[in-house]
Amino acid sequence: MRAPRIRHAFRTVATVCASFLLVSAFVIPLRYLGMTTGLLPVARAETALQAPSLAPASSAFSTMVEYSSEAAAASAPASAGRTSTRLDFEDAWLFRNPSSYNHGLATACAVLSAVCNAESHYYSGVEGAVPYAEHALWSLGFTDVRTESYALRSSILDELGALLTGAHDIAAYTLASKTVPHPDGGEPSTIVFVGIRGSYGIEWISNLNFACNRSEGGDHGGFAATEAEVERALARYLRDRGANPERTRILITGHSRGGAVANLLAARLDGLSGTPGQIVPAENVYAYTFAAPASTRSEERGSSLYDNVFNIVNTSDIVPQLPLAAWGYGRYGMTAALPSAPGAPDVDGKGALERMEEAFERNTGVAWAGNRDSLAALGAFADAVAQAVPTAEALASPAGIAGTAHAFLGTDAATALASHLPDTYIAWMQAAHGEDMRFSRA
User: Fold this and answer.
1) Is the preceding omega at residue 41 within 30 degrees of 0, hence cis?
2) Distance between CA atoms of 115 and 69, rounded to whole angstroms?
3) Pairing, β 285-290 against β 189-196
């Protein structure tokens, strides 16, 4: 008699599980679509906090801001990686020539890009996490901080909804603004901040969508589709604010995938300048990206039109080397290489790498996990892959797959990961100087 009862119990459990999966397959995408179309309410972090009623009466800021550090979280998971670093910011930086590299502004963007990545922890309910983006931007005098896109793209349910609806080409992003006096005594201007989150969950599928949005010379398909969404959100935000385009300055940043989308957004704003579709003039656009993979095959990417876009890369970071330059890919604007290659000159009696390691430990409380002896090989990663896989089309062939796998297996994985961390980019920016950087057209 026990066998029939066991079979009946098994069928009952299987039926319940199947019913649950069937309902989930319907409800989860419905919830996701309802929130993305505005039919269902989307939570905003500031509803649970007291936003400042007035911006601080200052134009220069020096403050400690919190973010969630991946390195610190790996060392002490219970802390959610919560750490802090100093952030300096001056409104006057946004009234200088955007085509002239500003190391202070770039360093601030390195911190803010990590802050925008960390915002996901708050929306996904990680214990101990706070609304990092709101706190950091409020401390710099920004108001109307909008992070509701994270509410759609941070939890397990959000990821399942995106998977089931095929919505891979998405991103979470932070928008904020403030009105400031013009340094020359002219009419007040609006500064708008756009920070784009790096790769998260289902978005990895979009990263692999190398197909360009035009048959030849187009932008990376996954990044381009994501940029279009952020661009629309930015345009709506400016309309809501009633911002005058001629007196609006936009600061754009992001790390990794977020950097690639930021690169395309800045290039798009530059390209629209002077046309009926202009959002703001190109001379009002400031962009600093970090660890951004190549975003385009456009032959115009090195045009002086995009000189206001600076892409900061760590030479031992694999991600900015992909997709390969040998396959025709690159980034809009200028590449600014950190002094991370072995043999970089000493400053104040210390090597560049030593100064970075000190800054990294000061910020995170843990030592940098990379191996100095592996840096040169990681810097040559793209060349190693290009020898085995000379074209993007060859990547799908058995030989291409084997060659790529061989190149990856030949790297020091721990150092590769450490070289890509937002913590590492922050530490490099704090340890380096503008004259330490090597600039080239993408």
Assistant:
1) no
2) 9
3) unpaired
Contact at 8 Å (CB) between 270 and 306? Answer: yes
pLDDT digits (tens, 9 = 90+) for 314-349: 999 999 999 999 999 999 999 999 997 655 555 555
Residues 6+ apart with CB under 8 A from 256: 198, 199, 290, 291, 292, 293, 319, 420
Please give the Cα distance from 141 to 436 (Å, whole number).
Answer: 31
List all residues 6 or more positions away from 274 whose beta carbon is below 8 Å from its beta carbon: 281, 282
User: What gap in Å lies between CA 370 and CA 92, rounded to an integer?
Assistant: 37
102 or 19: which carries more pLDDT confidence?
102
Please state, in angstroms and rounded to a whole number, the distance separating the CA atoms of residues 283 and 96.
9
Q: Measure the CA–CA gap between 12 and 9, rounded to whole angstroms.
A: 5
Helix 103-123, helix 132-139: angle, nearest 10: 140
Length in residues, the chain: 442
The residue written with tokens 């008699």 in the block is 1
| pTM greater than the 0.85 cutoff | yes
Q: Tell me, what DSSP letter sits at residue 336? A: E
The conformation of residue 304, written as its DSSP 8-state character, comes to G
Q: What's the rounded Cα separation, in Å, for the pair 399 and 389?
A: 8
Name which of 265, 312, 308 is nearest 285 in CA terms: 308
Please give the Cα distance from 256 to 317 (Å, whole number).
Answer: 10
Reply yes or no: is the peptide bond before residue 56 cis, omega within 30 of 0: no
What's the average model confidence in pLDDT over 406-433? Answer: 90
Distance between alpha carbon 181 and the CA centroid of its chain, in Å? 29
Q: Is the dihedral of CA 93, 99, 105, 108 positive or negative?
A: positive
Q: Checking DSSP bridges between strand 285-290 and strand 248-255, what pairing results, if any?
A: parallel
Least Cα distance to 285 among 275, 270, 302, 263 occurs for: 270
Q: Which residues pair with 347 in a beta bridge?
A: 350
* pLDDT of 114 higher than 50: yes
Angle between helix axes 413-420 and 422-431 (nearest 10 degrees) is: 60
Q: pLDDT value at position 15?
A: 54
